[in-house]
UniProtKB/TrEMBL annotation:
InterPro entries: FkbO_Hyg5-like_N, RutC-like_sf. Residues 55-184 form the Chorismatase FkbO/Hyg5-like N-terminal domain. This is Chorismatase FkbO/Hyg5-like N-terminal domain-containing protein. Pfam families: FkbO_Hyg5-like_N (PF21168). It comes from Dechloromonas hankyongensis.
């Protein structure tokens, strides 16, 4: 049985009949975007032989596409992928609500309206990118403003803000719009948590007025398939950053967390066990000069696994890197 959804990474955009959606990472030369939904991540690629990479989800199933409330989307019978960009300038700040908070809440409201209209109520995985994630404005760090807006929309649309929430990342770029890509389906995701960490949605108030709304990982089920999405994972034990200032220590701790999440996922998975060396990784490194150390640290831990390194900011100012990953298995039955 062939996979219905797979991810392909290449230096060029390959237009065939099977593209479902994807991301454009790096700083490409100007040119037209592919016709499928594309999340543009304008950030330097580290150690790459090309200035840009296309990470594309492929499918063998018939597709429908559309555009609603500025969301470009494509769907099959059981899965929907969408991309949305909102300019914060379109959401004037008030004393009670920053522009980013308002834009974040509106972005998720639009996502939930689309999912309800398309009969795809279950949000599986979200990729969030925002400018200046660690900058303090109106007395609050921008990442914390984003968390307020995101959670407001979850609660408004009765999604709940704990337990069955999607896998996600939130990454800082040097500029640009609020940029969100998401995958959703007709069936619920199975959330996976990490016993080494407090669930992000249960973080104490030290980390902001609202906790982040995501699970550490999620198992999702397109027809005939099982996909493990591992959220952005960093050097956090309990709820505290560990190894501050030590990029090697943070890299090792991040991988210890990923290994634990994989073990937890394997307790619940319906396919064969997932392994670290089969995951596809995206590694965000705050300082480009740390890249050689990070790559050297990861190599013995993940073997020949596929990795893309991106220079970007992390959701806490004392975190030097963040790692996300996924893998896909065929279900035999």
């Amino acid at each position: 049985m062939s996979l219905q959804f797979v991810s392909s990474l290449s230096a060029v955009s390959r237009e065939t009949s099977g593209e479902f959606g994807g991301a454009l990472l790096g700083e490409p030369a100007s040119g037209a975007l592919p016709p499928w939904p594309v999340q543009r991540i304008f950030a330097p690629l580290l150690g790459a032989t090309t200035a840009a990479l296309h990470e594309t989800w492929l499918t063998t199933l018939p597709m429908q596409s559309g555009r609603d409330e500025a969301i470009a989307w494509q769907r099959t019978d059981g899965v929907l992928y969408g991309v949305l960009e909102l300019s914060e300038a379109d959401f004037p700040a008030t004393p009670a609500c920053s522009s980013l908070q308002a834009a974040s809440a509106e972005a998720y409201r639009r996502i939930f309206r689309l999912l309800d209209a398309q009969g795809m109520p279950h949000l599986w995985r979200v990729w969030n990118y925002l400018a200046d994630i660690n900058l303090e404005m109106q007395g609050l760090e921008r990442y914390r403003q984003f968390n307020i807006g995101r959670q407001d929309a979850f609660l408004e649309y009765r999604r709940g803000a704990a337990g069955n929430v999607p896998a996600a990342c939130a990454i800082g770029l040097s500029g640009g719009a609020l940029n969100i890509a998401f995958m959703a389906g007709m069936t619920p995701a199975v959330p996976v948590e990490n016993p080494r960490q407090i669930s992000a949605y249960n973080y104490p108030a030290d980390y902001g007025p609202r906790s982040p709304t995501f699970s550490r990982a999620a198992l999702v089920y397109p027809a005939g398939q099982e996909i493990l999405f591992i959220s952005g994972t960093a050097s956090i034990v309990g709820h505290q950053t560990v190894h501050p200032g030590d990029v090697v220590g943070q890299c090792q701790e991040s991988m210890a967390n990923i290994a634990t999440v994989v073990d937890e996922a394997n307790r619940q998975c319906r396919s064969s066990a997932f392994a670290l060396n089969e995951l596809v990784y995206r590694v965000y490194v705050r300082h480009a000069g740390d890249f050689p150390k990070v790559r050297a640290t990861l190599k013995p831990l993940i073997g020949e696994a596929e990795v893309v390194y991106v220079q970007a900011d992390i959701c806490r100012h004392d975190l030097l890197l963040e790692i996300e990953a996924f893998a896909s298995h065929v279900l035999e039955n």
